[in-house]
Amino acid sequence: MHLLSIDSLSDAQVALILDEGARWFEYNRQPRRNSKRLDGLTVINAFFENSTRTLLSFEIAAKRLGAQVVVMQVERSSIKKGETLEDTARTLNAMRPDALVIRHGTSGAPGTVAALMDCPVINGGDGIGEHPTQALLDAATIRHRFGHVAGLRIAICGDLKHSRVARSNIKLLRRLGADLRLAGPPSLMPDDLPACDIDQAVDGAEVVMMLRVQRERMTEDLGDAPGEYLDRYGLTAARLAKATPHAAIMHPGPINRGVEIEGDLADDPARSLIILQVEMGVAVRMACLDLLTAERVA
Ligand code: NCD
Asked: 163 and 79 in one domain?
């Protein structure tokens, strides 16, 4: 079994990951963790795109479960000598890993690799495709705060066009019964998604999830003056006042302070779940690695 998309998971598997993630979250807060669930297994992390949270949390997750973790140094690899992705996959497979986590700039690349591997492959973000473990950790974070996802009004705002996080979250949060409102600049909204104005999206929301403007994936300049994006499309205190009084702020990170979100809002301990999302990321990735490697340990 691979975890390439939210569609890779049955409803029962989603429920299991969220429940187990909540359990590992508590476990991780203990002073010493010595789980041996993945003892004797090797996990390879191959990140062809930059990452702080996803890369480190997969490494910590695998190590906390007792696995041996190898991080492929893409910059120093034979990719730089012209090796194809397929040949790299065959090479990694020959080393008999028990799981492979891959991030790649091309949408669909994890599926290409998975077809050539004998072990489970986890998509850690592919181009503008999907980022399933981010959506799972976001759902787990929402459940931690609100106890449930069903029926919550959740606004997802910003650069939806380039956001694999949004794509996975739309699938997962809808499946879990959330009432989603999507908003962003017209040029950064995918054609197939119904959008509204950010003020309408935030109105009455219980969760406001902001997305980074992914200028590195854009071919054209947005043409915005300094401060203009925040003013027109970002989360400001004035905008947040339209949400419910207890509304939570989320962001997958990395945040661009003063662009899609006011810095003070990101830091507000009463409202912001951004740091909690990072902590939940380790726990949920433990649950994913455990589920996917279960048959190898049995
Ligand atoms: C995101 C990503 O890489 O897709 N970050 C993450 O994994 N937490 C979002 C982004 O880069 O803006």
From this structure: no
On whether residue 1 sits in a domain, the answer given is: no
Distance, CA of 190 to CA of 134 (rounded, Å): 20
Residue type, 46: A
Q: Which ligand 1 atom is nearest residue 252's CA?
A: 8
Residue 60 and residue 78 in one domain: yes
Atom of ligand 1 nearest to the CA of 131: 4
Task: Say how far apart CA 182 and CA 103 lie, in whole Å.
Answer: 25
Which of 131, 159, 209, 278 has the most ligand 1 atoms within 8 A of CB, as the residue to mutate? 131
Residue 136 to residues 27, 178, 228, 276, Cα–Cα distance (Å): 18, 14, 32, 13
- In terms of domains, do 154 and 56 share one? no
CA 298–ligand 1 middle distance (angstroms)? 33
Beta-strand relationship, 42-47 and 68-72? parallel
* Alpha-carbon gap, residue 163 to 188, rounded angstroms: 10
Task: Give the model confidence (pLDDT) of 66-83 as tens digits.
Answer: 999 999 988 888 887 889
Edge-to-edge strands of the sheet including 68-72? 68-72, 42-47, 99-104, 121-126
User: Looking at the 3D structure of the chain, how many domains does it have?
Assistant: 2
Q: What residues are in contact with ligand 1 under a 6 Å CB criterion?
A: 53-54, 125, 131, 134, 164-165, 212, 214, 252-253
Lowest model confidence (mean pLDDT) among 80-84, 120-124, 143-147, 277-281: 80-84
Domain that holds residue 229: 132-274
Q: What is the pLDDT of residue 177?
A: 98
**Which band of pLDDT confidence, cut at 50, 70 and 90, is reported for residue 297?**
low
